[in-house]
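so my prof wants the structure for this chain in the tokens format not the other one, which i didnt know existed until like an hour ago. anyway here's the sequence
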Amino acid sequence: MKKITILLAAMGTLAPMLALKAVSPEDSLKYINWQNLHPKYNKAWGAGTDKAYEDLLKGKTSKTVIVAVIDNGVDINHEDLKEHVWTNTGEIPGNGIDDDNNGYIDDINGWNFLGNPEGENINQAPLEVTRLYRQYLNKFGTLDEDTVLKYSPEVYDDFKRVVTAYYEKSNEIEMQKMGFDRFNGLYKRYDSIAAKALGKESYTQKELKALSAAKKTAADSAKKFLLSVYKMGLTKQVVDEINKHFASRTEYHYNTEFCPRPVIGDNPAEWSDAAYGNNNVAGPHPDHGTMVSGIIAANRNNNSGIKGVADNVKIMAIRTVPDGDEWDKDVAKAIQYAIDNGAEIINMSFGKSFSPQKEFVDNIIKMADEKNVLLVHAAGNDSENIDEEPSFPNQYSSDSTLLATNWITVGSTAKTKKKKTFVSSYSNYGKNRVDIFAPGENIITCSPGSKYDMASGTSFSAPMVTGAAALIKSYYPELTAEDIKIILLKTAAQTDKKVLLPGTGGKNKQFVKFSSLSATGGTLDVYNALIMAEEQSKSKN
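here's what i got, hopefully its the right format
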């Protein structure tokens, strides 16, 4: 179906959008728990987690490790997570008093920096480039470059970068939306025809395949079109998700008139504001954070759902990431909250291209390093070399000075080590600023309401590394954050395989050595990491 391919090409790269899709029975059989399998013994390039439990951890004792998940919220009542949620024992639930004097009232399971005491919460937010674009427009009253250069030469370069990026990105989204709208029109039309031919509004792919339709009829065309679409992974749910994605992009992300921050009542550019937010750690739509938490900590012993990487952790839920770009101040406050309340490892599956209050985050990143806290960050889903393209937060100052050593940046790989698809097409990379790759594509994990969905993105490879770090810390508590980072990177599984460079394809295919895409040139290997951890532990003792 050439027409479908052309329409999808007009929409641009879909992978970052398609973070969520329902799990079919076929997907369950094919993908469930692949990320924890061992590449030597299973037909999946996983991290070897399950074999590590079988061979290396039986009979060993562990201590509970607190892992902070800074994200869009966590469903702490999920059947696979509820036994692994952090509880602040210093607080008395619901009494409206800051019992432990940490500055946050009734923070029983974490904190929500995107709400207010009245229970209102921010869900959508503009991208940082949109917020900066609006600030420049308000400041100068014009976007004329000569005027800005004349009156404020010290901000001209930043101004030009912001305006250029805003126009490029917003126009790109408009073009993608036009392509999708054309596709969606066809999809709706053929879906209606198929539903009429089958005599039911909702139908399965199996029923569609069995539809008997004379050649060259509308029903036959609908059947062929829809089956081709489903083959690409574009189920009804995914098409709905893409619709929502474009709605968010146009109505919120690039809308210069949209400004939700007054809900919180603070100044995001002012650090010294009093504590703000509320204790609703789920928020309106805790899908992303629940998925991340499931990969780290889903119950391994309840004979249902999925298996997290770490078996003795408590998830501290910190809501900081809206549908849009996070604010630097919230990120810094979230990291500080995690450190102050005992988190030993922090997962950060978010990022952006601009960071106007970077100094807030930098100061707290240095604090994390001093406090022996490991920070794990997703590389991002833009198919870019982040050695060259800006990506925040990161562990470097504005002049590229290293601020913290206890930081790991993670790219995404797929289930099989095929040349064209092993490195996820959406994954960012970088020989200097990406440390390691880990399973992050087609991961079945927890979703709100005690459900399970399939997710793809570096957002889901980062918690694989977070879980591995927590597992090591749990069984070898004497190891420091620096020790654990060194272990994870030194034991990365190596391959000299050539892979398709993310962001290239078609006539512009470019193959590079996998080892050139990160500092380690390897993928997460939990099994060998635990062997080295055992050796390190013995040497310390």
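also thought this was worth mentioning. The first strand starts at residue 21 and ends at 22.
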